[in-house]
Amino acid sequence: MQIRYAVGKDHYTRLNTRELRNYFLVENIFAPGAIQLTYWETERTVLGGIVPIGDPVPLETDPALASDYFFERREGAVFNLGGPGDVVVDDHRYVLGPRDAVYIGRGAKAVSFYSADKSNPARYYLISYPAHAIHPTRAVPAGGANRLELGATATANERSLCQYIHEAGAPSCQLVAGITTLKPGSIWNTMPPHTHLRRSEVYFYFDVPEHAAVFHFMGAGDETRHLILHDCQAVLSPSWSIHTGCATEAYSFIWAMGGENQKFTDMDGVKIPDLR
Prior knowledge:
Elements: E1 2-4, H1 9-12, H2 17-24, E2 25-26, E3 35-40, E4 45-50, E5 57-58, E6 74-80, E7 85-89, E8 92-96, E9 101-104, E10 111-115, E11 124-130, E12 138-140, E13 146-150, E14 159-165, E15 176-182, E16 194-195, E17 199-206, E18 214-220, E19 223-229, E20 233-237, E21 244-247, E22 252-259, E23 268-269
Parallel strand pairs: 1-3
Antiparallel strand pairs: 2-20, 3-4, 4-11, 5-10, 6-9, 6-11, 7-8, 7-10, 9-12, 13-14, 14-15, 15-22, 16-23, 17-20, 17-22, 18-19, 18-21
């Protein structure tokens, strides 16, 4: 499991492009037949990808977690972004189609990942945070997510925001997560931008065409930088950083947050005229 350490607001202003990418960009998330995980010091976040081909892939703990099993002190969400597959949690099988998810509660001991068809394997994106309370593991199908229609064509940010794990949906300890999909012709997400001191966030961009790119903007509102991403890459967003982006054409992303407040509207807005 790769380790990423936290970067302070002042240190960030002195980083060049290569250093910004090394600290905040997670590039290689999916690998056939394997699990690849990244541990981020902020909120003790773990994110990664699982692609089962043939044999099932078990989720094992890592020495860095100092736990007997991965979810001993953690909760998490798994989103399927590939072909159909199953996630087995302590002998309970959850069948996941494209964009379906499963919330896994603290205390789950044995977790394994399957693909129904190795020629069209499932691609599971995992996001996990520490948990101090136990909530039941449950499937969250794409059709059961709370759907919000946001933005407008005139501002190139017409999008569907689907809340999977949130206050009024699948309960969790501190995890909040969902999927946003831009409509054709729209490219901007999360504009005007915001920060939220009470939690950090991870953006995982997917459905980005091979010839396209995403420009993700980060930093304090008066000291912004950008990162260029491609398909199936993630950005680590500290609590002091805005998180907004645009792309050369429409795309989707999974947003996930961990911290002390689960309220979706808990944001500290930054006005567009104040951006620098």
